[in-house]
Amino acid sequence: MDQKAYLVLQDGTVMEGKAFGAMDSTCGETVFTTGMTGYLETLTDPSYYGQIVVQTFPLVGNYGVIPPDFESGKVQVKGYIVREWCREPSNFRCQGDLDAFLQKSGIPGIYGIDTRRLTKLIRRHGVMNGKITQDISDLPGILEELRGYTIQNAVESVTCQSPRTDAPEEPRFRVVLMDFGAKENIRCSLVKRGCEVLTLPAHTPAEEVLSYSPDGIMLSNGPGDPAENTQIIHEIGKLYQSGVPIFGICLGHQLLALSQGGKTVKLKYGHRGANQPVRDISTGRVYITSQNHGYAVDSDALPSHAQVSMVNANDGTCEGIAYENAPVFTVQFHPEACGGPLDTQFLFDQFIKRMEEMR
């Protein structure tokens, strides 16, 4: 018989379910994602560092565990919440089930919870800290623990520790990928377009980055509050002045805006999922995008040389910035998204074109 487990939220809400994955307790920022597929990419996305993730889609794990689909080398979430997990996955690439995978990774999970109710709570009250546990006998102590929880040293915890190079047989360009928690498919998207990709740790000084003579610089996604990365922001400002084409995604988009004097704000419950509509201001066209972020660039606090190029069609928040005095552009969403949508992969082609023009 499955063991009981509980989700305790910071506001005192207690929800009962059943334990799966590692039989342990965990605290984290509780967030929801609306993706109907791509749960492996979600679990291994470094942008989820420090968070307990709720899947709004009711059945998760249908195609099992497929390591080639991972966005990093390990599970990055602190806990996992689903309505139901599939005990008998079916896929020719499957190498195991979700429960065993979470156990091996040391990540507690809980299922059998009303995830619809939980999602509505988060939407109404905003993101809250939560704890997955099998013991709620000391509820006041748990609530005190939740009030004190914060995500710390996020980028430092997920960035690579040493340089890494990926390249096609005959590379046309050299791109430095600044790893703030980079998803594997950013590298793949660049390599298949003929780029040698040199991945560098997040705190690499601008002078060292430029010493590799890159044709372009990619600023990756990543976790945490962007404004906390003061030294990284300072170095990005130097890279901006270099004249090398830069493309920023998600956290990279936020950090570059901060380096130019912009501001970021925390969203009530963030954008996480594969169905976020983004409108291109210049054409009026709407793209469906994959997103995973809890902060956004403040459109009203940008300098004059930074123009908002795309906005979220739901809430009007900034989704893209074009910089007028440098070959630089950034987006809040994920054009490399796997398992999709792939509407905005053309942005990688625009980056390639920028590099061609600068030669």
Description:
The chain is α/β, with parallel strands linked by helices. It has helices at 39-43, 98-105, 115-125, 139-147, 154-158, 184-191, 206-211, 230-241, 251-259, 346-358; strands spanning 4-9, 14-21, 26-33, 51-55, 59-60, 79-82, 84-85, 108-111, 128-133, 164-166, 173-179, 195-201, 216-219, 246-249, 264-280, 286-297, 306-312, 318-323, 328-331. The strands form 3 sheets. It has a 10-stranded mixed sheet, with helices on both faces. Strands 1-2-8-6-4-3-9 form a 7-stranded mixed barrel. The mean pLDDT is 97. Helix 8 crosses helix 9 (251-259). It is 24% helix and 32% strand.
List the helices and strands and how they pair.
Elements: E1 4-9, E2 14-21, E3 26-33, H1 39-43, E4 51-55, E5 59-60, E6 79-82, E7 84-85, H2 98-105, E8 108-111, H3 115-125, E9 128-133, H4 139-147, H5 154-158, E10 164-166, E11 173-179, H6 184-191, E12 195-201, H7 206-211, E13 216-219, H8 230-241, E14 246-249, H9 251-259, E15 264-280, E16 286-297, E17 306-312, E18 318-323, E19 328-331, H10 346-358
Parallel strand pairs: 3-4, 4-6, 5-7, 6-8, 11-12, 11-13, 13-14, 14-19
Antiparallel strand pairs: 1-2, 1-9, 2-8, 3-9, 10-12, 15-16, 15-17, 17-18, 18-19
Helix pairs in contact: 8-9
Order of helices and strands: EEEHEEEEHEHEHHEEHEHEHEHEEEEEH
Question: Roughly what fraction of the amino acids lie in strands?
Answer: 25-35%
Count all strands and give the number: 19
Radius of gyration: 20 Å
Structure keywords:
359 residues, alpha/beta, ten-stranded mixed sheet, 10 helices, 19 strands, 24% helix, globular
